[in-house]
Specification:
- The chain has 133 residues and is α+β, with helices and mostly antiparallel strands.
- The chain has two domains: 44 residues, no CATH class; 50 residues, no CATH class.
- It has two helices and six strands; from the N terminus they run βββαβββα.
Length: 133
Amino acid sequence: MQSLALQTLALEVSDDHLRLTISPADGRIGRLELEAADLDAFIRKLTECRSRMLPVHPAEPPADPDRLYRTDNLLLDVSACEALPAIQIAMQHPGLGWTVTTLSRDQAEDLQSAIDFALQDIPRDSMPRTGQA
């Protein structure tokens, strides 16, 4: 199998922001041009392949911030799952799109407890209190 290191790829978004061109920096092989829907499908296929590879991702978030996907604009949807006795939590990432996790009642209650526990370390209001009696 021929290996192509990610560092040797040039990624360029078109001026109209509608296409991504992927090409090898050394020009050995052709280039690939993808529209947003094609890129989304490619990312889904890549994540599917990655899920079958070793090493598996760790059970805890990595300490290295470069290995995390971050967003500060939380778009969130929680709904009952139609096919299972469960809930679905969907979160949107600007690059990955919507990711959905299905949780059983026990898992949802564990998540609720974990959130309640973590909230104990965060002050109720972020504004400093002044003039208290």
